[in-house]
């Protein structure tokens, strides 16, 4: 069997989106909203048709009416609310139109950053979206190398290091510096990092190695042939290796074929292909931009929201699985109920098997569910919910059995005494000085009476304290 050979592809232009998820305090949601508005970010609303061509680049105009008709109503009212609040996806956008360039491996790739989005999702999850355009003709391996390095927020591995981002007046050593020191410094104080809040409202320790998810629409020069190795490399972001040469991460044609069968939508083959992987959701075409305006518009609108929704699903399902695996049953008993509530709310309000009305939307949604392993992870979460319910029921049964045992004990003893534990010395003023002279049965009656009264008060105080603690925790939780 011959190893997979690399073929060259000339790319004239590429539109690239990067998605960066983060956690924030729910109690600071309104403060974050106010700060974004002060920084010039506008709340995205379908009624504001003047936003249709404000954030996506020249001559790209999305249709809000198409967005409104693309999703089922039970999803639409969450994705496109008329005003921001806790239980919806509140998007804030700002155009920048700033030029920059990424220098890596001896190659300079100019880019044009069109806009930034901040989408505040339910459960204290936020998603930062960077929209940029590479409008300089280049080779496929160069633009893949650009995407590979730009998506790394903080480089840790050797093959990720060495990238520099340069603007008109500044140079940045990482994407993290470029974004959070230059483009959107106001977001930095609201992001939770390197620690966990009490319970289940911490950072994203399950996030994949500080890398952003990429989504691209690449225009290759017309007249070329799109080959399997090119589409595979697009899905794996195989650009340039440490030797400075174009590379592919698999040399097996059979493996590449299996990958393409699962990850590629070839509806418009042989001129256009869309590949979806755990790193990217990207389209490459050899058609002219004039002939692909409809597809490019959908890439910026309906397909973007389809990806955003399923990416949120992925984050939340990973979060719920992670939180359950870190439950300390003895220490975090009070948080089990909150985890049950979180799973129940997510399952009932947000996670749906069918979200899109159009055929293309259904196909993309099915691909996201498959590639992100959403159904399998959701089943694990459902099993987790059942396990938590069983645990709660067992604890409740033990408490009831213990209470029943105590009540039965006092009932039996009281019955032996004829339901009368009163000693004559207790009537009126109690003279405790006579206690040493009590008979054995009077001592039993005294101990039973005092213990019963003490347990009753203890039960009342414990119940009252538990109720107050739960209400306080719910109040505190609502502030996050």
UniProtKB/TrEMBL annotation:
Domain of life: Bacteria
Transmembrane domains' residue ranges: 402-423, 443-468
Keywords: Membrane, Transmembrane, Transmembrane helix
Protein name as catalogued: Group-specific protein
